[in-house]
Predict the structure.
Amino acid sequence: MRETVVEWSQVKQFYYAILLKKVTSIFVYSELKRYISFTAHIVSRDIKERYAGSYLGFLWNFLYPIFFLIVYWFVFSKVIRIKTPTADESYLPFLFAGLFPWYAIQDGILRGTTCIVDKGYIIKKIRLPHELFPLSANISALLHHSIGFAIFLILYYLWRGFSFSEGLLFLPLLYLLQLVFSFGWSMLLSAITVYFRDMIHVIGIVLQGVFFLSPILYPPSAIPKQFAFIMWLNPLTSLMEGYRAIIVYEKVPELPGLLYFTVFTAAITLIGFIVFRKLKAGFVDVL
């Protein structure tokens, strides 16, 4: 009789555990669905605000970078005469493979840096994870520049002729790593900006310096040997070379560079998350 009671209590505990797990999963799912819906709403609203009152609308995704692409191509290819790693390689696709990802990163970090300050009126009214704001800013920036990137990529393959390579399978991975990279920096910088508003101006200057110190307009081989090590410490070097390997050279990105960028991205995202979590408690009071 006693064994039967024990067995029945175990059965009850088992079913209670299942019920609790089910209720918890429903709650987590509903919260996750709410967060995704809110993020999609912020991204959609940001994209609409970009083109409010604009006649050309989404065409600016292509026209803006193509203008600077032509300018940089003329200056560095015809005037300064930057040489690409291979003699038969055109400078235009070489430049394109580095310039478009840079614009997405730059835009994502700039918008991510100010996202908490800009969305302060929402943060005071709605209780949601504040991390959604830098995430939304970077998704919006990536989607914004992906249109121009896709158009130019289609034109490039129509001009050169499309041929499938294994490197193309790594393109989504680079896109994801790029998003996480800029998101990690955005969490770190947006949290600091709430308390130190001058960071908005500082990061604009720093990004200009990073642009010219990264192998975007020139190949890493153009760097003097004594500075080559410093150049490869820059994680953007691995990212840009990864895009060029896929698009220009039709190869798989080099594993050491891809691994280094992945580790650096994970590290800066972890640092950004820790700093953001520590500082966000005072956001409402400061905003």
In short: The chain has two domains: 1-50, 59-286. Residues 1-50 form one domain.
